[in-house]
Write a structure and sequence with these properties.
262 residues, alpha/beta, Rossmann fold, 2 domains, four-stranded parallel β-sheet, 8 strands, globular
């Protein structure tokens, strides 16, 4: 892994925000994240007190529950040099929306701002903060990349994953048409509007298959589970994987299992 660490400084202490979906459905993404961070010269810790980031409650308009969760997350992570999240969605929640939650609470607003300033999505942290420009991993075959909405639109994550994927031995990146278009998951959106969500993921899967790639990658597990579900129900041979797994050399693990029905 190529980087430009400062050998005179102590390794940055990173708090890993695992996310609910990674914890419950795809722990391999968490292990891949730890490997990538350690390879980039970081010391990684996983606070046991962490829970959900509060995004489902936030998206449903339940500010009281969201605020209670946000306080717990802030307390669990504010001691670290950085907070890293293998999800643009959860990363965006902590780094963008916590601040607005506490707009009228001076004490917690300041603490939320401090946490937001050091919270990053995984691949963005590797490239933009740690200066990583290559990884020492191998993956045989063609992949296509889905730009998840929160990562792309809230955190400006577009070039970073592609930069690192270019360094993976044996990997060929085939861009799909409409890579930046939503897959239809959208957290609670897919529950509130299942018919619209299903049509959106149908179109996304058609673009994935048309790319000719055998694997679709993304930085958000929610999107990947939604896409994997539709691929499975169509009988498609295309596999879905989190980008961290491929970058960490864990791309031979079983593909992500199907998500919701639809």
């Amino acid at each position: 892994m190529s980087a430009v660490p400062d050998d005179s400084a102590a390794p940055p202490r990173v708090g890993l925000f695992v996310t609910c979906l990674v914890d419950l459905f795809r722990p391999a993404v968490g292990f891949a994240t730890v490997k990538l961070l350690e390879d980039a010269g970081c010391t990684v810790e996983v606070p046991e007190a962490q829970t959900c980031c509060g995004q489902p409650a936030f998206n449903s308009g339940d500010r009281a529950t969201t605020t209670a969760i946000a306080r717990q997350v802030i307390e669990a992570f504010e001691e670290f040099d950085y907070v890293v999240v293998p999800s643009g969605s959860c990363g965006g929640m902590v780094s963008r929306h916590y601040v607005e939650l506490f707009a009228h609470d001076p004490e917690w607003h300041g603490r939320a701002e401090a946490l937001a300033a050091k919270t990053y999505e995984l691949v963005s942290f590797l490239v933009d903060v740690r200066g990583v420009d290559a990884v020492a991993s191998r993956f045989e075959g063609g992949v296509t990349y889905h730009d998840s909405c929160s990562g792309l639109r809230e955190l400006s994550i577009k070039a970073q994953p592609r930069k690192l994927l270019e360094s993976v031995d044996g990997l060929t990146l085939a861009e799909m048409e409409d890579a930046e278009v939503c897959c239809g998951f959208g957290g609670t959106f897919c529950v509130k509007y299942p018919d619209i969500s299903n049509e959106m993921v149908e179109r996304k899967v058609a673009s994935i298959e048309a790319s000719g790639a055998g694997t679709v990658l993304a930085g958000d597990l929610g999107c990947l589970m939604n896409i994997a579900g539709k691929l499975s129900r169509k009988g498609s041979p295309v596999a879905a994987r989190h980008v961290a797994e491929v970058l960490a050399g864990m791309g031979d693990a079983p593909a992500i299992a199907a998500g919701r029905k639809g």
